[in-house]
Design a protein that fits this description.
single chain, 280 residues, alpha+beta, 4-stranded antiparallel beta sheet
Length: 280
């Protein structure tokens, strides 16, 4: 009986305590409900942003670059290269395209980063299609691959390179695209070779066209390339262009140059087979 009375008393005290503090429970429950509503609203907002982004992607273009080598029937050589800009995404209008060509030169030194030497004449003709989708523009050059290959072959000639420092090089083309988006604003993108990059990446490379005179593709020589490199690097990192006797080669090359040449002698010899790209 006593235990029952104690239980009833405890329940009564609990009711009194709850009655006195119900305001705190009301505030807590309201706050909990408000927090849940905020969480649901935030999740809904994120879903809406994702849906908006998906819809924007559906209205964006997808530019990409293709290159093709053409075989000359008379000489059986792949003398010319053609580049095409295509859009496989949403159609856009007022497309403006500009292509600049460079020789990326690597001197294999820690002090000098790869150098971009501007070249003119590789793709001198542009044929826009004025189409908002599909083929946007075609870029052509006369015997551009032939002149480019002659520079490769010249580096393999002991008479030409006689004592001059070996350098590696590739032809790189920077393509800038400016177009009118479906939302009415002008947008820009860029390609370094066939890779799409942010325009800020290629900006310092394009500035070389304003600072230095570009080399003509049909007049490229080992000397002209190295002279252009010296012009960019300055006298501190200037490369000696004068030919020396082969006995002086190791004296003019740092140790790492000599070791690089010996370790890659077979590679250099194999590169003479590069002519297979020119002659069928």
């Amino acid at each position: 009986m006593l235990e029952l009375e104690n239980t009833i008393m405890s329940i009564s005290q609990m009711r009194v305590w709850l009655e006195r503090n119900k305001v705190f429970f009301e505030i807590f429950s309201s706050s909990l409900i408000a927090a849940a509503a905020i969480a649901v609203g935030l999740a809904s907002y994120l879903v809406s942003v994702s849906q908006l982004r998906v819809s924007e992607i559906a209205t964006e273009p997808h530019f990409y670059i293709e290159t093709t080598l053409y075989r000359d029937a008379e000489s059986s050589s792949y003398n010319e290269s053609e580049m095409r800009l295509l859009n496989a995404g949403a159609p856009v209008h007022n497309i403006v395209v500009d292509v600049k060509s460079f020789i990326k030169v690597n001197l294999f030194t820690e002090e000098v980063e790869p150098i971009y030497v501007p070249v003119v004449g590789y793709y001198f003709a542009q044929f826009p299609s004025h189409s908002p989708k599909g083929l946007v523009a075609t870029f052509k050059g006369s015997k551009n691959n032939y002149y480019a290959s002659q520079l490769y072959f010249a580096k393999l000639s002991p008479e030409v390179m006689n004592g001059r420092p070996y350098f590696d090089h590739t032809f790189v083309h920077v393509t800038s695209v400016d177009y009118l988006s479906p939302f009415g604003d002008r947008r820009k993108l860029a390609f370094l070779g066939r890779e799409q990059v942010d325009p800020s990446v290629v900006k310092p490379i394009l500035e070389k066209y304003e600072k230095f005179n570009p080399l003509e593709i049909e007049k490229l020589t080992v000397n002209s390339v190295l002279e252009a490199v010296n012009e960019q690097t300055g006298s501190k990192n200037a490369t000696d262009l004068s030919p020396k006797f082969s006995a002086m080669t190791l004296m003019r090359f740092p140790i790492k140059y000599g070791s690089w040449r010996s370790q890659n002698e077979k590679t250099l010899q194999r590169r003479t087979n590069h002519q297979s790209h020119q002659t069928a």
